[in-house]
Each structure stands twice: as C-alpha cells, then as structure tokens.
Specification:
The chain has 134 residues and is of the alpha+beta class. The protein is built from three helices and seven strands, in the order βααββαββββ. The chain is globular.
Length: 134
C-alpha cells in the first residue's frame, strides 16, 4: 500500500472527503455517487440491526440519519493508505455522542471496483458504549 501525505487528489482521499461530508453535514449525494450498484458496508455500532452487513444506498442514508441524531463530530484524516483494490484512512472523530464529549480514533477501509466504492468497513479505536444509553 502507498502512504499519501498531505492534501492531493487520490481515489481514497476523494472517497473519505465524501464520507466525512455525509457524517458531518448529512449530505450523502457526493458519497452515493461514488458507490457501485451492489454497495454494502459494515459499521461497529453495538445495536441490534446495525451489527451485521448493511446493504445499499438507502441503508447508508438511514445510517447517516441515525448517526447524526446521536453523534455530532468533525472527522480529521490522519493516515491514508491505498493499493489497487483498497484504500484506508485512519481518522480522528471529535465532538459529542448523546450530548457527552466524544473523541476517538477510527479507521475506514474502502474496497473498490474500478473507480467506485463497492463497500466500506469501519473500525473503532475505543468501544462505543455511549450508543447504548442516551
């Protein structure tokens, strides 16, 4: 994998920018324009219904609505790695979760099909216990 430092266009940088925009603002159009027809994703939310493979654009929009109802964050990319099939961004999320201060380091791995995102998997640095009790 190649490590990208600084800000210059890359497939993974563009994917993460659209991902970040969705989580920070609720605007999903740019991200969803980059996905394949069979797009799916995995998120580490410890709640029934979210703890398995998620499928499709509508489910991603549901994720963003849910996340923004409990999580208000700014995402800051720290490390970006990319090869032919995958891209990974390690990032910091800072803000509030259920009204409490929140700070975590996470990673998102994008799987590509040509220049489109076929799936992503998100990994967290610390457990997300605050999702369980508002």
């Amino acid at each position: 994998m190649e490590k990208h430092a600084g800000s210059f266009p890359s497939r993974t940088g563009e994917a993460f920018d659209a991902f970040r925009q969705a989580f920070e603002t609720g605007h999903t159009v740019d991200f969803l324009e980059k996905v394949t027809k069979d797009f799916h994703f995995f998120v580490p939310i410890p709640l029934e219904g979210w703890n398995h493979k998620q499928q499709g654009k509508e489910r991603f929009e549901e994720l963003i609505r849910f996340e923004r109802s409990v999580l208000k964050v700014q995402l800051t990319p720290l490390i970006e790695l990319e090869n032919e099939e995958n891209g990974m961004v390690v990032f910091r999320a800072e803000g509030s979760l259920n009204g409490r201060p929140y700070r975590n380091e996470l990673a998102v791995v994008f799987e590509y099909e040509a220049d489109r995102i076929r799936c992503f998997r998100e990994y967290v640095g610390m457990p997300l216990k605050n999702y369980e009790a508002p």
